[in-house]
Amino acid sequence: MSPLKSASEIVTGPGPVLKDVRFYKMLVELSELNEGGPNHSQERPDEELEDGEVSMDFGLRTRQSGPQLGIRVEFEARHRDWLVKLDAAAEYEAEADFEATNDACIDFADEVGIMTLFPYIREALGNLTQRSVGASYILPTIERGKVRFGAPAPSE
Q1: Is residue 156 domain-resident?
Q2: Which of 8, 116, 126, 135 has its CA 20 to 30 A from that of 80?
């Protein structure tokens, strides 16, 4: 059996289905600039951002073995007054063993995994900011292909 080389080969071939979504990290850090407590910090999580502006960064790890395929996304959102770090995983399983190249797993993350995990990441960020700063920051929705871990899509 030769390794699968793309997300479409994975989806149309073994067709792994989502079995689990879980978080390995959910962290929020607040600026203590105005708190004055013993952990008083003179630095904000991101001084360069304007009020209300949020910067985001995504990281990816994949794992494929036998019938299982794991997509793990590390997400970081920085605001002038807070920092949120999330580590979310989607676990897929096919009915039979298969082998996929690393590029195919990244392509699967681009086409399927991020679209699976993004609503969970969005909800977690909203909940964490609501509980910590009293106002929920809601991530905008994303179009398919706007967050990519591999090479840019051909039309870009």
Answers
A1: no
A2: 116
